[in-house]
Amino acid sequence: MNVIIRKIGNSEGIIIPKEILDRLGLKAGDSLALSESQNGLLMKPMDDDFARQVEHAERFMDKYKTALKKLAQ
């Protein structure tokens, strides 16, 4: 199935066909994990537990940004 990258505000995006959304049980507002694979892009629905862990990690990294930068040197 082919899709076109479209301008959406200041970003670009794709429209996911309804039949694929229905088959995967996805709806507007759901989160997807996007990664690169050897064959291109891979999108997978994020489970709630993983999304929660990512949120905690982002807060931790923001809180300790200075210390993490010094450790990275």
What order do the strands of the largest sheet run in, or round the barrel if closed? 1-2
Q: The biggest beta sheet, please?
A: 2 strands, antiparallel
Say how many strands there are. Answer: 4
The CATH class turns out to be Mainly Beta
Q: Which structural class do you get from the secondary structure elements?
A: alpha+beta
Describe the fold and architecture.
It is a single chain. This protein is α+β, with helices and mostly antiparallel strands and about 70 residues long. It has a single domain (about 5-70), classed as Ribbon (Pemi-like Protein 1, Chain: D), CATH 2.10.260.10. Helix content is about 40%, strand content about 25%. It has 3 helices and 4 strands; from the N terminus they run E-E-H-E-E-H-H. The protein has helices at about 20-25, 50-65, 65-70; strands at about 5-10, 10-15, 30-35, 40-45. The strands form 2 sheets. Strands 1-2 form a two-stranded antiparallel sheet. Strands 3-4 form a two-stranded antiparallel sheet. It is elongated, with a radius of gyration of 17 Å. The mean pLDDT is about 90.
Brief overview:
By secondary structure, the chain is an alpha+beta fold. It has 3 helices and 4 strands, in the order E-E-H-E-E-H-H.
Topology:
Layout: E1 6-8, E2 11-13, H1 18-24, E3 32-37, E4 40-45, H2 48-63, H3 65-72
Can you give keywords for this protein?
single chain, 73 residues, alpha+beta, Pemi-like Protein 1, Chain: D, two-stranded antiparallel sheet, two-stranded antiparallel ribbon, 3 helices, 4 strands, elongated
